[in-house]
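pinging the channel bc i need a second pair of eyes. not urgent but kinda urgent?? the chain im working w is below, pasted from the shared doc
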Amino acid sequence: MLEKLTRKIHGQSHRQSSWDRTGGNQDYVRIESGEEKTIFDVQGPAEINHIWCTFASEAPYAFRSIVIRMYWEEEDSPSVEVPIGDFFGVGHGVASHYISLPLNMITRQGAPQSFAAMNSFFHMPFARRGRITIGNDTGMVIPNFYYYIDYRSLDSFCEDGLHFHAMWHRENPTDGVLHMEQLGQTQKTFRGPIEKVSSMKNLNGQGNYVILDAIGAGHYIGCNLSIDHINPVPNVTWFGEGDDMIFIDGESWPPSMHGTGTEDYFCTAWDFPSGKFSGPYHGISLAEPYRTPDVWETPGTWGAGSFGYSGKWTAYRFHIEDPIIFNRSILVTIEHGHANSLSNDYASTAYWYQTEPHKQFRPLPVAAARMPLTTKESLKSYCRSI
């Protein structure tokens, strides 16, 4: 990329932002409760290359109840529809400081936060029209929403150009084999030791958690996955081991791409030994475990699976150097625990480029159905299972 800066870049640079048109310092827009505010509406051909935004809200978990949507050309169905925190790389309705190549959140380091500056550097080209909206489902007014959207006008839309897409999905809980009486649900009961879980088989991918189900031609460029480990295997605090399985162009078993475990797909190993960390292409943007000093200091213990309550986690993986190509369709899935043994709170954001039209997204759940469990609720559920 640095080498490209030595060559002439064609087009003209522009910005749409929330600057105060009176010349004062009130550089924000107000978004009423229930309002969907258009913050970008430009005739193409053009390409967005940077989005920055931040907001002030007293609503709990506002990062889950505010939604960013993007529409390309004259489509009625959005190509991007994601709760704003999840879109910028952190789940569970909170903010957390991290930096990756295409996305970041800038805030106080340490515990989850209720505010952050958020940045996207994904390129988003369009031929005729690009539109971005912010939907306020918090139930309260957003008094201050600040934004920059930087773009460049183009002479033409690339002949083989693709449109940017992002989609959110959640299952709470996933349909595992553990008893879920703490959530008032009746499911298959499994109370055997971890050895029995390890002996289970998954040889068709059915029941996997679905990160992306798309029709068209393009390439998948990554995801973030947020997990709240509310229903562990008794005496086992690690929530991973679920293999990623990516089915390309309608193929059946086996998939073209079959992984070896949740932490492995996110380019780590041995549970999540580092805790939170920021990498350009992969990392953990949120790690919120409860740790006790005696266990933390015990030699030979490491990672999310080695002590107490696991807490809430978000991991990300971007296929920037290794995009996953599809010509007709793609189904990106991951097991929720080995052989889909766990009934946990899973939520994900998938990012990809593809031809239009795209497959219509599942209806976005109402705000109340998007809310995470509180830490108290999560811990209570976890302790009833462990």
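so Helices lie at 62-65, 84-87, 194-199, 262-265, 293-296, 367-370, 375-385. and The chain is about 10% helix and 35% strand. — does that match what u expected or am i reading it wrong
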